[in-house]
């Protein structure tokens, strides 16, 4: 229901009390404080001059719109293919350097670091800094497009510095420089993942799975590069061959990082992308304003009550004695029923109050709702990176392995992981809907992955056994682990990011998921160090 009145200056003020319905309120606009006191929290939350249609209410589904005066204000039709490829590219670029580091570090250690095993500490530092970056993004927000583009440029420069700072310096300096560069690369990856997942969930369609698939594509791409270089161009068992592979790999990565930054910047200037990001930022601002108003409203009655008693203007006090006659006339059974009804009314009132302040929740409240799925994401990453790569393939005992067997096993991991990440997207094909597991089946499948511990640890503990130490048996183990890593990992991110309904709150669950993922990796990598 809407009404129309004039303000002090004769100007109408539009306030929306309910979505899609315009009303006019007589508001005093002399000071910001008077505005906050004249409008209820419900009105502040829903204040907008544009009616919201039903389609826009679904999480992550916004109508096509343009934002006047913004960089992309010329209205363009939403291009789902362009958006999918962009977020696929962002996901791939977030882990290209991670995949290169994981696969090349063993060869650098063999040729330049006297076979010292720094693999897990380097990978651990890479992931640990991601956690720090994501914690910062919870406070600063994750919809800053320029930050993603800057991270791409820094990512390229840091990758190019690996060769000169580690291959042409002393052993001690090389170790320190590798750790430092891994910290920089991890920070850039953290920005890419946190912003990528969050922004992908805010688009007219949800593209979280595209980011995850892109991360799998990164491993597949790195595998193709390393296999091509190691078998056709360089002998990676020699220092010269390792040097050539390092320069080739990270030069390609640098080019991809810069191209990705440019593409992402241009696509995010499209009107449909600008509109989605602007609406989420405005929603977040309105909710923060509503929270401040609600806090002020809550404090004012206490202040007014104290002031009223001091001047004798308070209403007559109604204590328990004022209701004594009514209460004592009821039987014990009726009294009990009356109390239950009263408690129910209070609960309904509190529930309606919360709904009137939809989304006005600090990040701890959002974390509470998302915590079960964030735990599953941590558990998923712990299982994968406790076993890979430290236990297998790096610590396994082999019986007559082929040449470049480590390159082959790493490659199998990346190829099958990419296949696994693509499986949830196939659920739209008739007969393949089961690939998008329900939440309950997803949890069961995650805990079933603990069975991988037995064959992986046996390969480390047992030697000279034709079956357990057979290279082809190891190929099957790696393929099985990586397939479930990609498939269930994509679902873990999906359920974690979409554990809340509000797009503005998914700006928080995006970084939370990106925190949970590296945190699980860090736990897995460091607990595997004793092997």
UniProtKB/TrEMBL annotation:
<feature type="transmembrane region" description="Helical">
    <location>
        <begin position="471"/>
        <end position="496"/>
    </location>
</feature>
<keyword id="KW-1133">Transmembrane helix</keyword>
<feature type="region of interest" description="Disordered">
    <location>
        <begin position="297"/>
        <end position="320"/>
    </location>
</feature>
<protein>
    <submittedName>
        <fullName>Nucleoside transporter protein</fullName>
    </submittedName>
</protein>
<feature type="transmembrane region" description="Helical">
    <location>
        <begin position="373"/>
        <end position="392"/>
    </location>
</feature>
<keyword id="KW-0812">Transmembrane</keyword>
<dbReference type="Pfam" id="PF01733">
    <property type="entry name" value="Nucleoside_tran"/>
</dbReference>
<keyword id="KW-0472">Membrane</keyword>
<feature type="transmembrane region" description="Helical">
    <location>
        <begin position="145"/>
        <end position="167"/>
    </location>
</feature>
<dbReference type="GO" id="GO:0005886">
    <property type="term" value="C:plasma membrane"/>
</dbReference>
<feature type="transmembrane region" description="Helical">
    <location>
        <begin position="246"/>
        <end position="267"/>
    </location>
</feature>
<dbReference type="GO" id="GO:0005337">
    <property type="term" value="F:nucleoside transmembrane transporter activity"/>
</dbReference>
<keyword id="KW-0813">Transport</keyword>
<comment type="similarity">
    <text>Belongs to the SLC29A/ENT transporter (TC 2.A.57) family.</text>
</comment>
<feature type="transmembrane region" description="Helical">
    <location>
        <begin position="441"/>
        <end position="459"/>
    </location>
</feature>
<feature type="transmembrane region" description="Helical">
    <location>
        <begin position="508"/>
        <end position="529"/>
    </location>
</feature>
<dbReference type="InterPro" id="IPR036259">
    <property type="entry name" value="MFS_trans_sf"/>
</dbReference>
<feature type="transmembrane region" description="Helical">
    <location>
        <begin position="213"/>
        <end position="234"/>
    </location>
</feature>
<feature type="transmembrane region" description="Helical">
    <location>
        <begin position="121"/>
        <end position="138"/>
    </location>
</feature>
<feature type="transmembrane region" description="Helical">
    <location>
        <begin position="173"/>
        <end position="192"/>
    </location>
</feature>
<dbReference type="InterPro" id="IPR002259">
    <property type="entry name" value="Eqnu_transpt"/>
</dbReference>
<feature type="transmembrane region" description="Helical">
    <location>
        <begin position="82"/>
        <end position="109"/>
    </location>
</feature>
<feature type="compositionally biased region" description="Basic and acidic residues">
    <location>
        <begin position="297"/>
        <end position="307"/>
    </location>
</feature>
